[in-house]
């Protein structure tokens, strides 16, 4: 009888020990739990409804975006947000994605309009950034009124109008805290005389705006008519604060 009781005590003790270990394992810090730990932008992308990461890498190659200067990180980050907005019914135009890559010099053609359904680059041209965002490179961004800076994040295109800058396209910012004042700030796509190769040759960089993504005058009407009325626009820069706190990217 004594041996049986001792055996029972040992069994109960073992069960208690295993329960404690299991409890502790669930309370481990995330950095110590099993599984991969990602530190770059690309793995932030979840498996998307349209396809997985590898498929989007194939489409990045098919569009020859590397040769056009658009990084894989900028493209996949844009696609992730685009798919989230599409899934929430916030876009009226499926398959159309505009990416403005502010990590590039203003000397580069860093404005891309992509047709993801037809797998075509519709436009690849120059674009200005806000005068207080930087000189040749944009490095500082803000959504404050009168900041004269560009604002990062995802936008949806709205209606066109003729104003002080001529034929223009309104942008509604969808990234709260980063660009949601865009309509109030009159951040619009418009054409400009200071965004062209002649200005670049004379000044060594593109001219700068008051915060609007200004494009070459000779292309602005075609661009605006192609992306107006509910398509996605993404203004990219590898800013850790934006990448970690964007509500659109968080899904």
TrEMBL record:
Pfam families: YkuD_2. It comes from the Bacteria. This is L,D-transpeptidase-like protein.
